[in-house]
Amino acid sequence: MDKIKVLHVFSSDTIGGAEKQTVLTTVSLKQFNEKYEPILAAPKKSFLYEQAESNGVKVVDFKCRGSFTPTGVLRLFNIVRKENISIIHVHQGKLYWTALLMKLFFKNLKIVLHRRQDTRHKWYAKWHYKIADKTLTVSKAVRDNLIKYEKVSEDKVQVLYNAFDFEKWTKQTDTSDIIKKYNLENKFVIGTVGAIVSLEGKGQQYLLEAIAELKKDYPNIVALIVGDGAGMQLQQDYAKNLGVDDISIFTGYQSEIPKFLKVMNIFCLLSCDTEGFGNVNLEAQALKIPVITTTVGGNPETIIDGVTGFLIPPRNTDMLISSIKKLITDKLMSDKMAIAGEKFVKETFSKQKLSSSLTDIYDGVLK
After folding, report:
1. Within a 10 A sphere around the Cβ of 345, how many other Cβ atoms?
2. Pairing outcome for strands 291-294 and 266-269
3. What angle do CA 251, 297, 153 make, to 5 degrees?
4. Are 337 and 308 in contact (CB under 8 A)?
5. Would the CA dihedral through 110, 127, 24, 141 be positive or negative?
6. Looking at the whole model, is its pTM more than 0.70?
7. Cβ neighbours for 329, distance < 8 A, ≥ 6 positions apart
8. Residue 100 to residue 83: CA distance in whole angstroms
9. What confidence score (pLDDT) does residue 127 get?
10. Taking the CB of residue 230, how many other CB atoms lie within 10 A of it?
11. What is the pLDDT of residues 152-211, one digit of tens each?
12. 66: β partners
């Protein structure tokens, strides 16, 4: 029997978390599903295109600048017709309307939207969810807010957790060059990974404040801040004002994130206002690193509080300091959290589980 074709659409030339998850979604379906055939529509020579193709997923060239771009609409129409697509799975907000327009031309076509961010829409965007057959969210937090603020019908929105390529992520990686370059030998490293969009950023400001206090009792402590953005200079100046510029390491953007995570003793994702799903929390736990994260957005769904790490309120430097001290002073607890975190990620966010969940979702949409 021929497989049912699902077109995954993402017109992006960049490399980000959403792009990586889209590739992983199509690859997971290809590897562990016998009913649906994933096809990816993405720009040629992009990360999306090359990564999916190299993993055996069929890819078609697709570019679209915005929702109602005529050339984009025409390109998508031609792909759906040529490939005999039954479901379009849209991974990019700006393409929601582009995909939904296809319902005008293909009577039985189903549209699945994927929401990865916890942001509010303008009033007219709410019609996305009324017309779509199903909306998927990366966390319960995003789902609940779609229902609350966008008035999405509860039966039309469902949580689909990100997949995690555990085997690929945890393969042995030599970190000696990182240790040497940043002088981390015999240091206790508290790290974070994320965009630095402002002084506050993804909470890097509060990590700097915490180590300013902690260095009094723990002279070998350092903060390893991985990421880049418009607020980087502000944070560097803030570190200098706090007197911790000598123990605050700003690496800028890095592509080999596992190498940097592996040198950390504690990982922090201190999101302050919004976080659809803190995927980097999974990445740290998979490498047996205890996590401290905030109660913002989908973060609480990425750890088990008190078991694999600690949940704290955003912008709470005192609780951050207290949590770090617990992990430093209680080595046994820290080790137990590290082991529990690895197990949690491996069991909860597997590619097989994603494939199985998507199969059920597609089945339901087609019914």
Report:
1. 25
2. parallel
3. 140
4. yes
5. negative
6. yes
7. none
8. 17
9. 85
10. 11
11. 899 999 999 988 887 878 787 889 999 999 999 999 999 999 999 999 999 999 999 999
12. none
